[in-house]
Write a structure and sequence with these properties.
Elements (H helix, E strand, L loop, with lengths): L9 H15 L9 H19 L4 H24 L2 H27 L6 H28 L4 E2 L9 H13 L8 E2 L2 H41 L1
Antiparallel strand pairs: 1-2
Helix pairs in contact: 1-2, 1-5, 2-3, 3-4, 4-5, 5-6, 5-7
């Protein structure tokens, strides 16, 4: 229990939790019961955010204000699976992951040394960004069925998996071309994600290298003195 609540390992645990979400996505349509496992994985991520943090009471309330509506909407959608619960689920998840992204970035900005936990934090920002854009694409497609050109052999009930795939291929600028943004909104969202992916790699790598160089320099100076 002490391991899970330690800030020293928070980015490790979050990383493998997010990988678990991505691993389960392709199997949900083949085995519907795995939907509950996927929601359970989301639940773990959300509660881990609350209980691993060293917050004041006010910040705990802020965390819960993001977590509780997201959990309610996500579990309701896993049970009822109608249009209203679908929109509520992915809208609240997108907002929650934006908040999670803010917390990770804030932690990264204030870090003073590069260790494995910091590196996992940098990877978490990338994974969370891909999920945020995936939820945005899912919602856009829900309200505008012509926003994307989909392969004719794909089933509509696989759109969560498909748009997660589309999001990460856009984020990494692979662009396989099997799913194509057609509406102006879809194209612009895709552009923003691709630009973010490139800028993120350039900025974060330079930031980590700068911190590492400064640490080695200061450490070397201390030894010399």
């Amino acid at each position: 229990m002490k391991f899970f609540l330690s800030r020293k390992y928070d980015n490790y645990i979050l990383f493998f939790s997010l990988i678990g979400v991505l691993f389960l996505l392709p199997f949900v349509n083949a085995m519907p019961l795995l939907r509950f496992a996927l929601v359970g994985q989301y639940t773990f991520v959300m509660f881990y955010l609350v209980f691993s943090a060293r917050h004041t009471r006010a910040l705990y309330l802020v965390d819960m204000a993001f977590v509780v509506p997201t959990l309610l909407a996500t579990w309701l959608d896993s049970i009822y699976q109608n249009s209203m619960t679908f929109v509520a689920s992915y809208l609240t998840m997108m907002i929650f992951f934006l908040y999670l992204q803010f917390l990770i970035i804030r932690q990264m900005v204030h870090t003073h040394k590069v260790d494995t936990n910091t590196i996992f934090g940098a990877m978490n920002i990338y994974l969370v960004a891909g999920l945020i854009w995936a939820y945005a694409f899912i919602l856009l497609n829900h309200f505008d069925a012509n926003a994307f050109h989909m392969p004719s052999y794909e089933l509509l009930d696989k759109k969560v998996e498909l748009f997660t795939y589309y999001s990460f291929t856009t984020l990494t600028t692979l662009g396989y071309g099997d799913i194509v943004a057609e509406s102006a909104q879809a194209r612009m969202l895709s552009v923003f994600e691709a630009v973010f992916g490139q800028l993120y790699l350039a900025i974060v790598i330079s930031k980590l290298v700068s911190i590492s160089w400064r640490t080695d320099r200061d450490g070397g100076s201390a030894k010399d003195s």
